[in-house]
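Q: I'm a student working through a structural biology exercise. My instructor gave each of us a protein and asked us to get a predicted structure, then write a short paragraph describing it. Mine is Probable peptidoglycan glycosyltransferase FtsW. I'm not confident about reading structure output yet, so if you can add a plain explanation after the tokens, that would really help. Here is the sequence I was given:
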Amino acid sequence: MRLKPRAPDFAIFLAVILLLTFGMVMVLSASSVRAAYANDNPFYFFQRQILWAIAGVVVMLVVARIDYRKLGRYNKQFLYFSLALSAALFIPGLGKNVLGATRWLNLGPASFQPSELAKLAVVIYLAYNISRDPHKLEDLKKGLGPYLLLIGVLVALLLKQRDLGTAIAICATIYLMLYVGGAKKQHMIGLGVIGIVGILAAAILEPYRMRRITGFIDPWADPLDTGFHTLQSLFALGSGGIFGAGIGQSKQKYFYLPEQHTDFIFAILGEELGWIGAVCVILLFFLLIWRGIRVAVSCPDAFGSLLALGLTVQVGMQAIINMGVVSGILPVTGITLPFISYGGSSLVFTLSGIGLLLSVSRFSR
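A: Happy to help. First, here is the predicted structure for Probable peptidoglycan glycosyltransferase FtsW. I'll explain a few features afterward.
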């Protein structure tokens, strides 16, 4: 039975808008010192971010009005295009190297991160193809095998970009989608073991990753190098107390805390808005994840259900990893906080994914 579309899930929309509001305020505050020093304009990053936010919200609203089932027909095109863009990073002159990592494509005055498109494309691809024949996943050679090959190509490209954090987040999302989609438990156990061994191998083979792990285990052993990010982040969170120092009153943003408006913006948020502000953001992410899972459970078709699950887990996983790093629970990675951190392509594609989630919610029971 074809359900008549209804209004999108308002709780998801509200949570996203409130998170975006937190993000705009914190980008303005966290980036002002660096922007004034590097660009002679304390509003430089904020002005760019607000333009990206407007563009992202427009895209989200447009995508939310599109029947997600029509987009599913182009799943292969989305995926192959994203993989081609990821490979194009390594063509001389196209890839932009920042802090030793080549993750951005040069587009003149702007830059684009292909992994953001790949995260969205792989969820659409898996959701569509698994839903067409879920029992096929039970066959390791003909069903699960091709998906594993795809995952291997994507992870290899991400590791080549020196982006282990995004690779872990994508693999965790794919793993859950495969499990829910009908893969055998023994296959999933084997995949889990392979994944853990792969993460350990990726860390051991790259000296800088090993330094991050040792810095995570004992940041005080080398407080000026391997433990610097973690300690400065904890100083920011701890100094905020319950109510925070107030908007714009952060001391850690004065070049004590690195990447204060991107990877570690949650630490500045905790310093300025305190425990109350940090908990509000966490609760908004919880609301978004809860409603997203509810949409997945109540969706009448398998494609929409898997799509909603993948999109929800992807945002939730990225938020958990980022806040875990900032609070010293996880080793330092290069993952930003969705809707809060500065970053144009990340924000636009994350909002595009939310648009798809809202589209699925229009047809849920």
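A: Here are two points you could use in your paragraph. The mean pLDDT is 89. The two ends are 12 Å apart (CA to CA). It's a good idea to check both against the output above yourself.
Q: Great, thank you!
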